[in-house]
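Budget justification, computational time. The allocation requested in the original proposal was used primarily to generate structure tokens for proteins on the priority list. As evidence of use, we reproduce two of the resulting records. The first is shown immediately below.
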Amino acid sequence: MIETLDQVYHHDEMAKEQNRSPDERLKFHQEKSAPLMTELKAWLEARLEDKTVEPNSGLGKAIRYMLKHWAPLTLFLRFAGAPLDNNLCERSLKMVVLHRKNSLFYKTTLGAFVGDLFMTLIYTCREMGVNPFDYLTTLLRHHQELSKDPRRWLPWN
């Protein structure tokens, strides 16, 4: 199973390296990855049907989950531009969850406000491709100019 998914991700990496358009990437995956995914689905179903995997085991639950969500998991074979996974969303949410957890320890409302402000700046920097540490250091070095014209010092500027 892991080797099959590794091949699918390899195909996606090849499509990116070749700068294929979303439509070309879709056709490429339909040609190269669809047969692999069809074999994988048959293999998963066989494991449950011939009872070589206990349905309530960790592997059995994972197989049932994959089969139950097969249509959304294989969206990249039907829609141009669909990603293979949702790792981008997961990474975005991870910062929010960590911040929420850490914010339990703020002693004052002002402390929470400052923490939220820095979280927003750091996240915005990452989204804009700016190094958050370098950005915040630059703000500190140029604090007088910053106070005169804050808009000029936004991460996208």
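The second record produced under the same allocation is shown here.
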Amino acid sequence: MFLDVIRRRNPKLVEHAIRLHQEGQIPANTYVIDLDTVEANARMMVEAARKLGLKIFAMTKQMGRNSSFCRAVKKGGIDKAVAVDMECARACLGAGLDIGHIGHLVQVPRTETGAAVAMTPDYWTVFNIEKADEAEKVSAKAGRRQALLTRIVAAGDKFYRGHEGGFPAEDIVQTAEAIDRMEGAFFSGVTTFPALLFDQNTRRLVPTPNLATLERARDSVAKFGRTAIEINAPGTSSTVAFDTLANAGATQVEPGHGLTGTTPLHAFEDLPERPAVVYVSEISHYYGGEAYCFGGGLYLDPVFPKYPVKAIVSREPTTSSNALATVDIPPPEAIDYYGMIDASGRVKPKIGDTVVFGFRPQVFFTRGYVVGVSGIGSDRPVAEAVHDSHGREVKWP
């Protein structure tokens, strides 16, 4: 979905990815990140957020919590991360980002509350009073009073299957009072996910009913003197979304795909953020008139309807349409050992050729490697250390 945009807006990334792979500097099954572009994207977001008074936390799971990526984000001015789970929090801390938000999307398990407290997160989301009790008891023992965000839900709110949960929004006043009575915690605000979604029909960002739920909760607690609560409103965040969120009262945003220019809207419009990631594979063998390329990271985000997958196949650095081939990706229920490339057209892949895809990544969900590359705009960019999909360095070669 993003390959045409990348070829047009960041062709050097494609060309250098091919060269670096052919030189043996990066393995097949690797997401290659343009670190300079990530830094520039982050800087734009920081400035846009600053003008609107928004706190900004980086979502890093899409890039496998890669340390090179995290450093680029930090250089761009975002020094705190949102961690979707404890594994994410540990990886982000190891990569040099402080924890701005923990417990959302995934609650902190009871046995890991001590580890979470030790990370001194700015905000900690809870879905129910029992999880609030767990967080506050351990925080109190550590001599800390933790700021808790409450995930809330009202009739009509939208959640991805498996993401559901939260306090009843109509009980927000009582919930806030109950949390404030805790020794080791206090009520700091409300959150949801998603606050914005991409609409396929209009190709626009659309506020979900959840965002209005946050606004109503803010108004409810304001009647009782709480006039400065945090409103955490993640979902499809990029600079063009910040105005909508700020106008709805949001105080916190959490860009993820926006940092690599791969939100759904980036596929259709040239937004300020430029695309900054490609997936690199290699031709392994032939069978039945198809050329097979290595998989492991062949993840097609279901945010888009099914679409024809294309890739550039070449040994020489190029973005030419003459190098574009059609690829058959195994269905989600199958393991993506390989992708199958149609060899009946003008592209005749050879064993060892580089294959470059333009995906909207969720690296942590795959078996793909990740490599950050600096100096993409120069003649000789530098590939940094190879990491696995969980942010751990891999010995290479």
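A brief technical remark on that second record: The chain has a mean pLDDT of 96.
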